[in-house]
Amino acid sequence: MTKEDYKKRLIVFFSEKLDADKNGYISWDDYRLMALRTTFQQNNGEYNEDIHRKYLTHSKQMWESLCNDVGGNKDGKVHFQDLVNFLYELTSRTRHFEELPDFLQNLAIEVFHMIDKKCDMMWDRDEYRFGSVIWCYVTELKEIDKAFESMLSSDDRKRGGITLERFKELVTEFFTSLDANSPSRNIFGPLDPNMADEILCRAAPVC
Question: Rounded to the nearest 5°, which phi and psi values hold at 122?
């Protein structure tokens, strides 16, 4: 995988996971929407003010951490290219989940718990399907299942899914590996790097 391929993978990830209004950059409003969505998803489709307040506080912390690490422009926007360039510099010296920037660790853990509907600290195939349908642009169930199967080690198969610790390993690989065929490429759902150019054009109207 080239540096450009790596960047495309991450651009699609941030678009699918954080850019809620699909305008080509990340802002505080994206985190606010994520908090509201999480509230409904974690409370069986019902609104709860206390739960919303908890996730809104957590989202605010993640947003501030992102801005501290990467920096936003004067309009309070963090553009994908700046974010991806920042992360690319970490690939050669990051080997463990705990070495990733705080905003990535927090985002990953929140994603894990949002998808762990059975609250057993593990993703099975049905939960991975749920997460992929919610967060990714994917229309074929077989594509989701193939992505899930590609990540399973022999131990994962014995356990029946991906545990939190295994999830952390795959997340670390996702953000640091330059191997285009790494199983970790599917940990956040089957993402299509070919969408990256179109995504970047949203932040540049001249495209």
Answer: -155, 145
Residue 30: name the closest of 107, 144, 125, 133 by CA: 107
- Classify 71 in phi/psi space as left (phi over 0), alpha (psi -120 to 50) or beta: left
Residue in 187, 190, 189, 162 with CA at minimum distance from that of residue 176: 187
Q: What is the DSSP letter of 79?
A: E
Q: Tell how strand 77-79 and strand 25-27 pair up.
A: antiparallel
Tell me: the pLDDT tens digits for 136-167? 888 899 999 999 999 999 999 999 999 999 99
The letter for the amino acid at 186 is N
DSSP code of residue 9: H
H helix intervals, 18-153: 28-42, 49-70, 80-88, 102-115, 125-135, 141-151
pLDDT digits (tens, 9 = 90+) for 71-111: 766 578 898 888 888 999 888 889 999 999 999 999 999 89
Q: 202: which residues sit within 8 A by CB, 6+ positions away?
A: 22, 23, 24
Angle at 19 between CA 164 and CA 145, to 5 degrees: 45
